[in-house]
Q: What sequence folds into this?
């Protein structure tokens, strides 16, 4: 009840004309930042941070968080239209969003990202409003072993479901793991696979790799086939909206699971929206009735990933406000803002700076409403980009992607990497190697290894740490079971076929 | 005739001298006025977005903007990776450039030694020191250890699990120092990527102690965490005036982290002086001092050769500990 009254107070703050305008501008800038590949929400917020010094703290946080909400929406747009991730968290949206757009259903694909994404964000904000402090407490119980268990679960949801040759999936993932290990090892502080090159000490950025492998690779392939994008019908009518809502209703289970999962992954310190969207995809595929349709334009593939990303984005601000720990890189930059505005994050913020905290929460509701309206109204504009002739569009996309790759580390080296990954992506496709395991391994491999080794330092090298801690144990056991599934499945089938009918070989 | 010609010649000469003199005066004026940057200044951050160095850089560039202290914008640019090596390599390549500066942390002296890089801190132009960041020894509020003495007694009996930011960086350095000076069993040191996560793992009870910066531990103080001591050389003023220093407790360990500004190699003297003056203006701002106070940083301004000598001493301390710990092998 208290939360309710506070929220009303927050709305009073957030709905002042000045703050409303600030929120609108923030969301708009965020959408643009989200659309531009490479220029992520994190850099966007960082670049615009100095603008906030002259604002009152509440308006400042409304502005920055609205950029974040805008970027969460906007990231999906280029992913779906061009197979180029606008943001790290929209890589997984491409898996099904782009095939659907290529099928001529770009409008529908965008609606499937925005509408469920909005509802997911809304649910996440409600969770934030009423359960922030207890959820933050719970998040603190998650140490490295629990984080490892969760990441292991993420990997397990991706096994046994790949179309095509499982060996090719393994090869693709292995390559991802190898590239993930390049750079300075956080645990030992030693360089790995850098061959004495200073530039390689930063390792391979997953965002450069995915813009290259997916986006540039796709352009190379379509150049070979014929110079045009196929998703030319990009109108979103009321029919599409209705279809979207019906589709979301049909996959309500996937939607709810992804939203809740995304929110929780967001709340956990140091993870964020990117792993959340991958995990939601794996999970949705694992429990879908038609897993074979994933990767060809399955609505659930879009719903799950975008819902998870957007609720994780909201979740990531929770530990930042309540504990002073950023749940994602973007939240880390906003946290820096808090210090600059003269505030100390943490539990005291809820008591000493009520206007600030509840103004922020109220602006989450408002920002997301503005975001969804802006995006849905702009869908025809975005889709119209697809009608630009390919000889103009393709070089523009390559140019934007190069700028994006440069922006990751502010080095031209990344542009060369982008092109190299583009060629690699093209070769992958020609040889029928799946790209998804490669990027998943590249983005999650690093975190998983870190959590595993941190856990082993804590336990002096004993693997028992994963089984003696209840939360970790449950996660690890379930993950191991899922890994075994493809091996066990034929055995289970044989058992089901009647023990009598087919005599076991040894009996 | 001759006299007339002479007069003409001398008139021309006088005119020439006057013209040259005027030109010289004209040219002299901008040279006498202080050098100023003529295009946006690249403000390199040797760490990723959201970390301590990032916050300071963005704060400083925001203050320059807000108080109109410079004619051009200062553009913060993150060059994360390789514990600062990538940023240092970049700035080193800008030799002589008056429009690039860099904000540094301890990795500025440590990384070249540990990673055996082909350059060192000496290659860069010292501009100014703006603050010294502090380190507290933190434990959980409900931990049985109420003093450093009790903590040391426990750490002499068993290997305690502790956490810090990164590997072979300042946090691990302090713990290694502590181990050596107080004769402790080796800590089980768990590295994390950011200070906020380190603090969270202490609050959540995953580890027994940290040496977080005050700004990282304060969100949990006094509710969840307790500082046992500070690694500063003297006691702090204000809310932590009662917190003992390690030194006065009998452990000769003091450590503070440099928050300094450096330029590329061979930076022109006038540019160097300009930035040192600019940083002094920033340093004297009320906003800046309030920020330092709030996050328990020591306000300390040094510039020019004085700063250069200070960095030399700072480097030597690191070299000793790194060699003793065998990290550069």
A:
């Amino acid at each position: 009840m208290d939360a309710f009254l506070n929220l009303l107070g927050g709305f009073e703050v957030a709905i002042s004309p000045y703050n409303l305008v600030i929120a609108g501008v923030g969301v708009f800038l965020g959408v643009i930042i989200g659309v531009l590949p490479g220029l992520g929400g994190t850099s966007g917020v960082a670049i615009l941070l100095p603008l906030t010094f002259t604002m009152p703290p509440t308006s400042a946080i409304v502005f920055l968080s609205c950029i974040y909400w805008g970027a969460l929406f906007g990231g999906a747009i280029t992913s779906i239209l061009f197979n180029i991730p606008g943001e790290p968290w929209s890589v997984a949206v491409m898996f099904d969003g782009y095939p659907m757009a290529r099928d001529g259903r770009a409008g529908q694909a965008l609606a499937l990202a925005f509408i469920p994404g909005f509802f997911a964000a809304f649910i996440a904000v409600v969770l934030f409003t009423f359960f922030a402090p207890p959820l933050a407490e719970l998040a603190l119980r998650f140490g490295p072993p629990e984080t490892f268990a969760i990441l292991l679960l993420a990997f397990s949801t991706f096994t046994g479901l790949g179309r095509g040759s499982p060996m090719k999936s393994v090869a693709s993932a292995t390559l991802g793991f190898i590239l993930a290990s390049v750079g300075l090892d956080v645990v030992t502080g030693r360089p790995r696979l850098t061959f004495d090159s200073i530039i390689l000490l930063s390792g391979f950025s997953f965002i450069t790799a995915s813009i290259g492998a997916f986006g540039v690779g796709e352009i190379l392939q379509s150049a070979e086939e014929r110079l045009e994008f196929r998703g030319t019908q990009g109108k979103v009518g009321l029919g599409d909206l209705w279809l979207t809502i019906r589709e979301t209703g049909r996959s309500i289970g996937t939607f709810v699971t992804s939203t809740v999962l995304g929110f929780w992954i967001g709340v956990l310190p140091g993870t964020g929206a990117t792993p959340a969207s991958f995990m939601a995809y794996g999970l949705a595929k694992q429990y879908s009735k038609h897993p074979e349709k994933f990767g060809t334009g399955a609505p659930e593939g879009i719903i799950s990933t975008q819902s998870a990303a957007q609720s994780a984005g909201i979740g990531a601000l929770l530990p930042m406000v309540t504990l002073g720990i950023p749940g994602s890189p973007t939240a880390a930059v906003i946290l820096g803002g808090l210090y600059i505005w003269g505030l100390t994050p943490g539990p005291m913020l809820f008591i000493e700076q009520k206007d600030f905290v509840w103004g922020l929460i109220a602006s989450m509701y408002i920002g997301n409403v503005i975001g969804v309206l802006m995006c849905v109204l702009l869908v025809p504009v975005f889709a119209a980009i697809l009608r630009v002739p390919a000889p103009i569009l393709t070089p523009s996309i390559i140019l934007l992607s190069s700028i994006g790759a440069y922006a990751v580390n502010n080095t031209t080296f990344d542009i060369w990497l982008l092109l190299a990954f583009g060629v690699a992506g093209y070769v992958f496709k020609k040889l029928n190697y799946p790209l998804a395991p490669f990027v998943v391994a590249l983005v999650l491999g690093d975190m998983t290894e870190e959590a595993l080794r941190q856990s082993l330092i804590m336990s002096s090298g004993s693997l028992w740490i994963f089984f003696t801690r209840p939360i970790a144990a449950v996660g690890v056991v379930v993950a191991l079971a899922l890994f075994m599934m493809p091996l066990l499945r034929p055995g289970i089938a044989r058992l089901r076929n009647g023990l009598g009918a087919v005599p076991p070989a040894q009996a | 005739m001759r006299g007339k010609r002479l007069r003409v010649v001398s008139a021309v000469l006088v005119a020439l001298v006057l013209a040259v003199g005027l030109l010289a005066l004209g040219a002299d004026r901008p040279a006498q006025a202080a050098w100023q940057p003529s295009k946006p200044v690249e403000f390199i951050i040797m760490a990723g977005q959201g970390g301590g160095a990032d916050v300071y850089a963005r704060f400083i560039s925001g203050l320059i903007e807000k108080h109109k202290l410079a004619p051009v914008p200062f553009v913060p640019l993150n060059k994360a990776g390789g514990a600062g090596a990538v940023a240092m390599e970049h700035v080193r390549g800008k030799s002589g450039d008056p429009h690039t500066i860099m904000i540094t942390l301890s990795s500025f002296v440590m990384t070249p030694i540990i990673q055996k890089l082909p350059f060192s801190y000496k290659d860069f132009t010292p501009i100014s020191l703006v603050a010294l960041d502090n380190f507290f020894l933190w434990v959980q509020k409900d931990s049985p250890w109420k003093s450093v003495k009790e903590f040391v007694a426990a750490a002499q009996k068993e290997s305690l699990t502790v956490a810090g930011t990164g590997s072979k960086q300042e946090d691990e350095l302090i713990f290694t120092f502590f181990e050596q000076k107080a004769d402790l069993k080796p800590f089980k040191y768990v590295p994390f990527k950011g200070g906020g996560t380190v603090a969270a793992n202490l609050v959540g009870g995953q580890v027994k102690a940290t040496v977080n910066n005050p700004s990282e531990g304060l969100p949990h103080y006094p509710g969840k965490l307790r500082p046992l001591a500070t690694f500063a050389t003297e006691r702090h003023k204000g809310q932590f005036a009662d917190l003992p220093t390690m030194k006065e407790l009998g452990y000769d360990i003091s450590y503070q982290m440099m928050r300094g500004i450096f330029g590329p190699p061979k930076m022109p003297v006038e540019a160097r002086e300009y930035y040192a003056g600019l940083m002094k203006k920033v340093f004297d701002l009320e906003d800046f001092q309030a920020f330092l106070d709030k996050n328990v940083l020591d306000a300390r301004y040094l510039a020019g050769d004085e700063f250069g000598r200070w960095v030399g001493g700072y480097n030597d301390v690191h070299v000793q500990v790194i060699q003793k710990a065998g990290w550069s092998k």
In short: The first strand of chain A starts at residue 183 and ends at 184. Chain A has one domain: 2-485. The beta strands of chain A are 183-184, 191-192. Confidence is low (pLDDT under 50) at residues 500-507 of chain A.
